[in-house]
Amino acid sequence: MASETKDGRKIQWGIFDWVEWDENSPSQIFEDRLKLLEYADKQDFYCYHVAEHHTTPLSVAPSPGMYLSAVAQRTSRIRIGPLVYLLPLYNPLRLIQEVCMLDHLSNGRLELGVGRGIVPYEVARFGVDPEEGRAMFDDALAVLLKGLQNETLNHEGEFYNYKDIKFWIKPYQKPHPPIWYASGNLETVPWMAKNGIHTSHIFDTNEITKKHFDLYQELWEKHKDDPDRINNGAVEPKQGQTRHVYIAPTDAEAVAEARVAWKAWCDNINYLWNIGDS
């Protein structure tokens, strides 16, 4: 499923999901999602991205890898990926192997989103100092990339140290699954673009998104042949923009039918941000 922008850029349509809590049992929520994704798979959607959140009604799928392994078995074409794995919450040695497993279980359909988390209380509940989140992310990402690309892991960092660790499973995709980073911060655009990292913007205005997209495209083109890019297997940039969409015969019907779900989502996203103050 693809179309083009006015300037000829290819648009691929995907799904971004939180797997929110509702009055149904979690098992029913999961089954409903899996049936939805079986349908999306047949309709040629490009990718299914899922967020990682904890102790909030915004998500009943706090383990994206486990959840996506089920998605992988019920689909065959649509690409799948966490957006994002919250790296400060993971032992990178374990995550390296989980990523390799998921890449093979999906037959090379994994898109690997990484991040540090945008809500301080979420990481704090795991005993992680939010002030150290960026440094932990950088160190964990370095370990992750080394482990995915090398037969043996050696790393000396601020938070993680490994010596002569051999892996018996490597990624299906070479050199590793495509790397994504979700951000609406203009200051992160140069880092993403120069390193060939795909990105997704969540709920920015069209004007802000265009500013980000243009800068990203410019820097991508300038650095696309750099040998030391993080996402060194990427051959074309992918920039995502998230929008809520609901389709009905008329606009009035769409608004009426989507209103309940929209309110539930707003309540859940507000819970995520407000619980830290309670």
Automatic annotation (TrEMBL):
The entry's keywords: Monooxygenase, Oxidoreductase
A GO term for molecular function: monooxygenase activity
One cellular component term from this protein's GO annotations in UniProt: cytosol
Signal peptide limits: none
InterPro entries, per the entry: Bact_Lucif_Oxidored, Luciferase-like_dom, Luciferase-like_sf
UniProt keyword annotation of ATP-binding present: no
Domain Luciferase-like: 29-262
PANTHER family for the chain: BLR5498 PROTEIN, LUCIFERASE-LIKE MONOOXYGENASE
The protein, known as: Luciferase-like domain-containing protein
